[in-house]
Design goal:
The chain has 20 helices and twelve strands. The chain is mainly alpha-helical. The protein has a domain at 331-437: Orthogonal Bundle (Cytochrome Bc1 Complex, Chain D, domain 2), CATH 1.10.760. Strand 2 and strand 3 form a beta hairpin. 39% of the residues are buried.
Length: 438
């Protein structure tokens, strides 16, 4: 519609610009009358809208192919099954944006006058665009036509200011409550996924059920390796999307930069209509699923992703890591811990202020003292030095790419042994408080 509108008034705009050109003697300096800060602000706002609300056309997959919307609405509204109630939606980690709720609904919620076991309420929330990262497309009333997802589904949460799972948006925060596998598993038709992986639908559902809260396996649809050699799920923790300005490789195993991963996820994982190119995915020995599916060179017409990558990148770069709240760490111990961080040479890899390495921030599994399973699923066969700002926000689910270390003290103990630091119990404790303060 926008392009039609542009063509319709094209002659008018041309005449207007010529009139200005003939009446003014200003030199063409490439500016549009706004300073750089204003243009940056506009692009960041556009990126914010894209991050929060753009599906990139992926509703054709989630609704049209998987028919996920029919399970959400239930048979009462033309779908299948019992439908998804607000209570069930919150239980799998979906979040509700309190700022999208009308005052009347907020008052009813406070008074306990909303039936949170009724799927009709979930559909109403979708109509209000209040479920973070999910968009419902409606036919009429509360009957859905399709459903789409956004970046915010995995990389935003809420502050729980109204109730658990209901509050103001926190963009860039990893949603460590979100059970992605359980959400996808609601879909009545997973034949497209099963066909991609060359397995049956029950197998797909078993794999999805193995992920658990806060985890997603992006590489599954590239290599088909659903489980580690020890039998544990191959899924990794959802990483935060804040604090990435100045950071080179921003995924666990260093696939690429922010715009790389945005294009990858929007096109290959969210199944939006975009373009994506990476010749490494044509390696049939490492990426048999991707090579078979032609994921190394995807082109969509129309392309609903590529034009949005610059603004999306700008917004993500503007997402600073949130400072640790007062009282969440021992300030005196953290001050001592900062000295330990230096003397133990933690800062040789976690270089302030990004707390990762400037330049190529990737290490071999042997350097880190861990197995190579997840590293072997990435082209560079390494693990990224994770930036540490805002570490306090994602303590749920464990640490490292797969949550193998339950606490920060477990991480410190690992490095103490790996690098023979010989830290005392007090030094370890102080170091943990410093990490919580970042």
């Amino acid at each position: 519609m926008k392009r039609s509108w542009t063509r319709a008034i094209g002659a008018t705009l041309l005449g207007f610009s010529l009139a200005i050109a003939s009446g003014l003697a200003a030199a063409d300096d490439g500016h549009d009358g706004r300073d750089r800060g204003e243009r940056d602000n506009d692009e960041r706002f556009e990126g914010k809208q894209i991050f929060r609300f753009d599906t990139f056309g992926d509703e054709d997959f989630w609704g049209g192919t998987l028919k996920l919307h029919t399970a959400i609405e239930g048979s009462r509204f033309g779908g299948v099954g019992a439908g998804v109630s607000p209570k069930a939606a919150l239980a799998v980690g979906l979040k509700v944006d309190v700022d999208a709720l009308p005052r009347s609904l907020l008052m009813a919620l406070r008074a306990g006058n909303v039936n949170l076991d009724d799927p009709a309420v979930t559909l109403t929330l979708l109509k209000l665009n209040a479920i973070v990262g999910v968009t419902g497309h409606f036919q009429s009333g509360l009957t859905l036509k399709s459903i789409g997802i956004q970046c915010a589904l995995c990389h935003s949460t809420v502050d729980n200011s109204f109730a658990p799972g209901i509050g103001h948006r926190l963009d860039g925060w990893a949603n460590r409550d979100l059970n992605v596998g359980a959400v996808i598993g609601l879909a009545p038709d997973l034949s497209a996924v099963a066909g991609l992986l060359n397995v049956d639908q029950p197998t797909v559902r078993t794999v999805l059920a193995s992920w658990g809260p806060g985890k997603f396996d992006a590489e599954l649809f590239l290599d088909g390796r659903a489980f580690r050699p020890d039998g544990k799920s191959a899924a990794t923790l959802i990483p935060p999307a804040f604090g990435l300005a100045g950071v080179n490789l921003h995924t666990w195993t260093g696939w690429g930069s922010i715009p790389y991963w945005n294009a990858f996820v929007a096109t290959l994982e969210m199944h939006g209509k975009g373009s994506f190119s990476d010749s490494r995915l044509s390696d049939v020995s490492q990426f048999p699923v991707a090579a078979r599916a032609g994921f190394d060179n995807v082109r969509s017409d129309p392309d609903l992703v590529s034009s949005k990558l610059p603004a999306l990148h700008q917004y993500q770069l503007a997402l600073a890591a949130p400072p640790a709240p007062g009282g969440s760490f021992n300030a005196g111990a953290a001050a001592r811990g900062s000295k330990v961080f230096e003397t133990a040479k933690c800062n040789s890899c976690h270089v302030p202020p990004t707390f990762t390495e400037p330049g190529w921030n990737l290490h071999t599994p042997d350097e880190l003292g861990i197995d190579d399973f997840q590293a072997s699923r990435a082209p560079a066969h390494g693990y990224r030095t994770a930036p540490l700002r805002g570490l306090w926000t994602h303590q749920k689910g464990g640490f490292y790419h797969d949550g193998r270390y339950a606490t920060l003290l477990d991480v410190v103990n690992h490095y103490d042994m790996q690098f023979q630091l010989h830290l005392s119990a007090q030094e370890k404790s102080d170091l943990v408080e410093y990490l919580k303060s970042l």
